[in-house]
Amino acid sequence: MKKILKVLLPFFLFSLFLLPASAEGTIEDGLDLFSGEEETMLLEKMSGTSLNYRIVTAEETEAEDLAERSVVLRIDGDQEVSLDISEDLTAVFPEESREDLAWLLLDALQEERAAEGCLQLVESAEAQYKTFSEGAVALPSVRNSEKQYVVDMAYLLTEEEAADLNERLRTLSEKWDADIVVVTTNDNGGLSTMAYADDFFDYNGYGRGAQRSGVLLLTSMDTSEVWISTCGYGITAFTDYGIDLCLDEIIPYLSDGDYAGSYRRFAEIADEYFQAAQDGRPVDIYPEEPEPEPDPVFEPFSAEAGAGSVAGGLGVGLLSTLRKRARLKSVRSREYAEDYVRDDSFDLTRSQDIYLYRNISRMRIQSSSSSSHGGHSGGGGSHVHISSSGSFHGGGGRKF
Questions:
Q1: pLDDT one-digit tens code per residue, 29-44
Q2: What SS3 state is found at 216?
Q3: CB 169 within 8 A of CB 215
Q4: What pLDDT is stored for residue 46 in this prediction?
Q5: Alpha-carbon torsion 65, 69, 75, 81, what sign?
Q6: Is 23 exposed, middle or buried (0-12, 13-18, 19+ CB in 10 A)?
Q7: CATH tag, 150-285+384-399
Q8: d(CA 234, CA 212)
Q9: How far, CA to CA in Å, does 87 sit from each of 51, 55, 63, 71, 93?
Q10: How far apart are CA 17 and CA 261, in angstroms?
Q11: Parallel, antiparallel, or unpaired for β 385-386 and 392-399?
Q12: Residues contacting residue 287 through CB under 8 Å, at least 6 positions apart
């Protein structure tokens, strides 16, 4: 037994050195951007990750030599963001990818969502590192064939329905120069519905133009969820509010099992949304415009009528004054106020002030903490995230 232990012990100790060290996460919040709860949440997220993350906020920040597998996020007093990585991660995070991650955080900082932005950055960096180290996610590939706008892996459509819908989506995609795609699946492969939709779009070569514009509707029978993934100009056309309205339209069809009806309605909505975006007013939340006040109506002025009105007013006023003056002939002015009081006619026994009315002015003071961010309360638009391929995506979904 001792001989076996002597043989196995060196191999056991050697294997410990081969295992990667536990990832660490540290925060140096010199600008007090995070609350105590937010800092705890970020530290928990950064512990047990593949990389060593460090968040530094200070009036001035300086680059430094980094240990292996290190990612340092710096935010200075001017809210400028920089992302430093160790040399061994340059292939994982090329310069363009680092800029995308920094912009993701910068958008959050402008909306005073520093903690949320840092969390999204860590999650995106982890997904990108995992994709690089393990290879692309095993998704069904349709890149080697003619581009398909309907990929019905859950067999929810008949062949005729799929063919008709594919042609309709092809026409719309060419019309708006943005791929409009419908995908169904029975298996998410362990991914969230959002990640599956984003990755299917990215790794199968969808998207047109330099921005890779497009929108993908995923129906997952695995999780009974539907997700709309947007990219490029699709993020502009399908705002967060517009996605909610679209889901309100198509989910009743899905719940009733009318999948073809749901996807036909989605195609109609996509056409409407891209048209609205091209017209400069995407489907979104806009402040209510006050109704214009009606123009005042003036009657034509007549000089004769005006002179008559003035003369009549003067006459009435003169007569009224003369009548009141005639009634005051018995009244004579006195030197003192008490001379007007008759003897024994007034006896003051008690005095008291009684307040008959109260007038209070109130002004509402809006608390800065009452403003909210995220969702639709920020005034509309689209919130974005970074997929495992490093691409920006918008989107939204729900159960059906």
A1: 988 889 988 888 888 8
A2: strand
A3: no
A4: 86
A5: positive
A6: middle
A7: 3.10.310.50
A8: 9
A9: 13, 18, 13, 10, 10
A10: 58
A11: antiparallel
A12: 379
Tokens of 108: 């959050």
Q: Give the right CATH number for 17-134 from 3.30.1330.10, 3.30.70.3040, 3.10.310.50, 3.30.565.10.
A: 3.10.310.50
Count, residues in the chain = 400
Which positions of the chain have pLDDT values less than 70? 1-24, 96, 131-145, 289, 296-312, 316, 322, 324-379
Number of H helices, E strands in the chain: 10, 10
Coil/strand/helix, residue 166:
helix
DSSP state of 382: -
Q: Which residues have CB under 8 Å from 209's CB, separation 6+?
A: 177, 178, 232, 233
CB 227 within 8 A of CB 400: no
- Which residue type sits at 197? A
**Residue-level pLDDT at 17:** 39
Note the pLDDT of residue 397.
Answer: 95
End-to-end CA distance of the chain: 61
pLDDT reported for residue 341: 65
Given CA atoms 215, 220, 223, 225 in this order, what sign does their dihedral have? positive
Per-residue pLDDT reduced to its tens digit, 242-264: 999 999 999 999 999 999 999 99
Domain with CATH 3.10.310.50 in the chain: 17-134, 150-285+384-399
**What local confidence, expressed as pLDDT, does residue 280 receive?**
92
Paired with 143 in beta bridges are: none
